[in-house]
Amino acid sequence: MVINIRVRTGSQRNEIIKDTENNWRISVSTPPVDGKANSKLIELIAKDLGVAKNRVLIDHGEKSKQKTVKILD
After folding, report:
1. Which domains can be identified in the chain, with CATH numbers?
2. What is the pLDDT of residues 58-71, one digit of tens each?
3. Residue of 70, 73, 47, 48 lying closest to 58 (CA atoms)
4. Do residues 64 and 6 lie in contact, with contact meaning Cβ atoms separated by under 8 Å?
5. Which of 52, 61, 57 is nearest to 70 (CA)?
């Protein structure tokens, strides 16, 4: 599964908004420092989908607000 994500960092709460099945907007409370926001993003996606965190990979856009994430089967 591939998901296109628009990330907002430093928000007041963690939130996932699913515009469509493969287009999500995610807010994370963690600032984008030393990859902490990406780690929180992976944690939120894994929890929402009920998969292990190591099954969620940022495929494209590691340092961008627009990301492509792959969920491994």
Report:
1. 2-71 (3.30.1200.10)
2. 999 999 999 999 99
3. 70
4. no
5. 57
Contacts of 18 (CB under 8 A, 6+ apart): 24
Q: Rounded distance, CA 20 to CA 7, Å?
A: 15
Asked if 29 contacts 12 with a C-beta cutoff of 8 angstroms, the reply is yes
16-39 confidence digits (pLDDT tens): 999 999 999 999 999 999 999 999
**pLDDT-derived band of residue 14, with 50, 70 and 90 as boundaries?**
very high
Antiparallel, parallel or unpaired: β 23-28 and 2-9 = parallel
